[in-house]
Write a structure and sequence with these properties.
alpha/beta; TIM Barrel
């Protein structure tokens, strides 16, 4: 497995400074939130994307891909009954996929709770059908660029659409595209699933394309009460070789402290479970 960190917590830091610290700590990947660049990814030039990729590579970092795909956008929604909005959403996912490929990334995590919540009058079945249509429209173009979308289950406190790994798999199987995979997030699994996380890791090992680590206190691994040893043991036992990416939501301790403590803890746990 490879360690990355989501960069939106580096508020006020320019891209090069982010890359320098993240690489210095020991991470080999950086995961990008599009809203940190512009309101819409289409406002970011190809030259800027290429420069960012080069600046990351110069410091030994890969850009793993994108997350928070629809955050802070307007007029986009996954499950809406409005066909024109669904088409615009698919088109925007294609634009995100182009940017992801230009950055050298391979995965896009679909979280964006506000842009997938069921709107009034939309049933669960209609929501699944509408979401499947959006993804079926976008995914072939993403496949041409070598990019996959990973569907992220989130807790019911965040959204009323796709809360568990099983519900995400229901949508993934309905879409039936090889570049549509499952995303697992520790905080979300702790808040939404009945089964222990190691069991979920083993059950869906062949379907997972990306993995986020965090805790219920919204900080990084090792900064809360969750024991990550059984989680990392399950990842090792299932031969997970993708990115394990730190995503936090409470920036209070400061980006550098969060990044350093999270990495040190993950390295410590990994050394114990893999010895």
């Amino acid at each position: 497995m490879r360690f990355a960190i989501c960069q939106e917590m580096f508020v006020g830091w320019n891209w090069e400074r982010q890359c320098e610290l993240i690489a210095d700590i020991g991470y080999t990947g950086i995961e990008l939130a599009p809203f940190t660049l512009a309101d819409r990814i289409t406002d970011v030039t190809a030259d800027r994307l290429k420069t960012m990729r080069r600046q990351a590579a110069d410091r030994g970092l890969e850009i793993t891909g994108l997350h928070w795909l629809l955050a802070k956008t307007e007029g986009l929604h996954l499950t809406t009954a409005d066909a024109a909005v669904r088409r615009a959403t698919a088109d925007y996912l294609i634009a995100l996929g182009d940017a992801c490929a230009e950055l050298g990334g391979e995965s896009m995590v679909f979280g964006s709770p506000d842009q997938r919540n069921l709107q009034p009058g939309v049933t669960r079945e209609q929501a699944y059908a509408n979401a499947a249509e959006v993804f079926r429209t976008a995914l072939p173009a993403l496949a041409d660029r070598g990019v996959c979308i990973c569907m992220e289950p989130l807790t019911s406190k965040e959204t009323n659409f796709v809360n568990t790994c099983a519900e995400a798999m229901e949508l993934i199987e309905r879409v039936g595209a090889p570049n549509f995979r499952l995303h697992q997030d520790v905080k979300a699994m702790l808040g939404a699933e009945r089964d222990p996380i190691p069991e979920l890791i083993r059950r869906y090992a062949s379907d997972v394309g990306h993995f986020h680590v965090n805790d219920t206190n919204l900080l990084g691994p090792g900064m809360g009460e969750t024991d990550f040893e059984p989680i990392f043991r399950a990842l090792c036992e299932t031969s997970y070789c993708g990115w394990v990416s730190v995503e936090v939501f409470d920036y209070t301790p400061g980006a550098e402290r969060i990044a350093r403590e999270s990495f040190a803890y993950m390295q410590e746990v990994l050394s114990r479970v893999s010895s």
